[in-house]
């Protein structure tokens, strides 16, 4: 057959739909997201305002300014290695399932069901825990704002300084500022935790950075709704990490230049009840204007940012729920992958909201429960990130076919760096956080993550190995 007039090239949407069919799925979700929209979802889930604000106390207590300002880039460099490896795999397999689908395709036919099961459940439980921890953190911040509004400043808070909404304004308005030497070199060893090894203290302080720099798999989970997904999904992952590194460092610097008295900021007897970053905001404005209303306004800005972070997190994990149930991996799967007239997996959204709520409830009466949930959200998600990368650099090393985005000959090297970093932080973040170790000071990370692994493995051995075959096509439906 010859063409007198060559046919027009396929549109981007047709190419995306065709690639999705090659991967085994028909287009059910509305493909409307641009590269900016895809990036925005991951950037909002990472949300430096959420992560840094929530765990600033941890950074101050374990190492202080030096750990936060310098450790941020240490964690960030290795996080970028993880992100680059994920972006390369995402480009080859742009599906909403993301990590668990990648594991199935990269581990080979024999191991695909087991690899997919382990990766998928680590990913989805970590995402639910992440949403729960974000929204619970919002509740904590609102509680502190109410405390400052009613108990701080002699009860006379006004809102006339609402124009001061930029977080970078904190060191500008603070009458006493830390020196650059203090911000970049002061290492706080007075953590009242009985830890005397400086390396151990520094490692624990990195948790703030690593907790913040997570959630960028959201770009992968949104690829079935993203135009030119093989290109724009990877861009969303990499740019979200890179821009978060720059913006986050600026936020940390802005706050830390207003830090002078670490023990007072961590004391439960201060105006903010020991919520260090809230106390910094409050004092920065109070010292210049006689009241802390401007600081409270800034805290409300942060609270709104945390709200949007939780909303984006919900969007991401509902798509993961939709994809995982589409492949039959969840109880009552046929319910959770239904799509409404607006092409939204609404049942998956409500299920994700309900499970995240249930996971947050124990934290109302137990700080230990919240710490365990945060541990799952941080460590388990990185284990899920590492598994498909591990399969890519081992089992699929010689047969991996990259998509539009490729690391070329450096793909294996970067992949191994990513895997080794995840293995390292999994061990380091399981170390004791206080001595002597008691039931009240125990680091529950290995308990929470180990318990999750036991449940996932047990469910595989007892039941799933008999019926779960990994990702299945829905083209015939």
Automatic annotation (TrEMBL):
The chain crosses the membrane at residues 39-58, 70-94, 157-175, 235-259, 289-310, 348-370, 376-395, 407-431, 443-462. GO terms for molecular function: gamma-aminobutyric acid transmembrane transporter activity; L-alanine transmembrane transporter activity; L-glutamate transmembrane transporter activity; L-lysine transmembrane transporter activity. Its main location: membrane. Residues 56-135 form the Amino acid permease/ SLC12A domain. The keyword Ribosomal protein does not apply. Keywords: Amino-acid transport, Membrane, Transmembrane, Transmembrane helix, Transport. The keyword Transmembrane applies. It is found in: Membrane. GO terms for cellular component: membrane. It is a multi-pass membrane protein. Pfam families: AA_permease (PF00324), AA_permease_2 (PF13520). Belongs to the amino acid-polyamine-organocation (APC) superfamily. Amino acid/choline transporter (ACT) (TC 2.A.3.4) family. This is Amino acid permease/ SLC12A domain-containing protein.
